[in-house]
Amino acid sequence: MIRPVLIDTHAHLYEDVYAEDRADMILRMQSAGVAKAYLPNVDETTIEPLLNLCENYPEIFVPMMGLHPCSVKENWKASIAMIEKVLFSNPSRYAAIGEIGLDYYWDKSFIPMQQEAMILQAQWANELNLPVILHSRNSMDDIILLLKKKIKVTRTGIFHCFTGSLEQAQRIIDMGYYLGIGGVVTFKNAHLPEVLKAIGPEHLVLETDAPYLSPTPYRGKRNESSYITYVAAKLAEIFEIPFSKIAEITTQNAQKVFNQTVLTTE
Ligand code: NI
């Protein structure tokens, strides 16, 4: 039997929390059938660990580059200038611009700067013909508005960690974007399964957001890419289709977002 291949479209596996057992964690990921993970950048401090990990495992990890909205603070212009320099010095190295977006959960005082940073980075995506990875915590309607009114991203991309309503899901799909589904879908009392059931699996990709948002039964613990099997199993249950079919659909979707060439060239 051929084991279905899974793709983790969003994981911060370069973070220090894996320093002790990163090689084992990667072995567990491979034995779980997770063939690839796409690694989003956070800010200027994560560039080096991210690129090192991708260099050490070029078959497994693919880098993405961007400034996370939670890192848009007083000095954001300096941060984004550094990220721009790294990105444009070797643009073909990156599978997407990310993660970028708006975060209205924590500090609201930087919202105008977050918006400016998101628009600027979406322009890079168009310039380089790359998709975007969008972080939309408590801000999904504003992101949709920006993408409709201010900056249309040609290659579209992924609404990472989608947890919104059916209406929001439909608007996102209508714009040509995919929904990144992670551990939240396995949480008790989550409304997400109902929303997903209504829209179907055709616009979904899998993600972990590791080390955050571990699926049940690891909720609250450190997440890792091998746990994506719990997310895929939950989707199989929601759609009442085999696990292998979920793997096939979400892997195809991920390949569409990132473009086949990214998966095969170095
Ligand atoms: Ni993330």
Commentary on this structure:
- The structure is a single chain.
- The chain is an alpha/beta fold and 266 residues long.
- It has one domain: Metal-dependent hydrolases (TIM Barrel), CATH 3.20.20.140.
- It is 42% helix and 12% strand.
- A 5-stranded parallel beta sheet has the order 4-5-6-7-8.
- The protein starts with 5 loop residues before the first strand and ends with a helix.
- The site of nickel (II) ion (NI) has 5 residues, from loops.
How would you briefly describe this protein structure?
Helices cover 42% and strands 12% of the residues. The chain is α/β, with parallel strands linked by helices and 266 residues long.
Provide keyphrases for this structure.
266 residues, alpha/beta, TIM Barrel, five-stranded parallel sheet, three-stranded parallel sheet, 10 helices, globular, binds nickel (II) ion
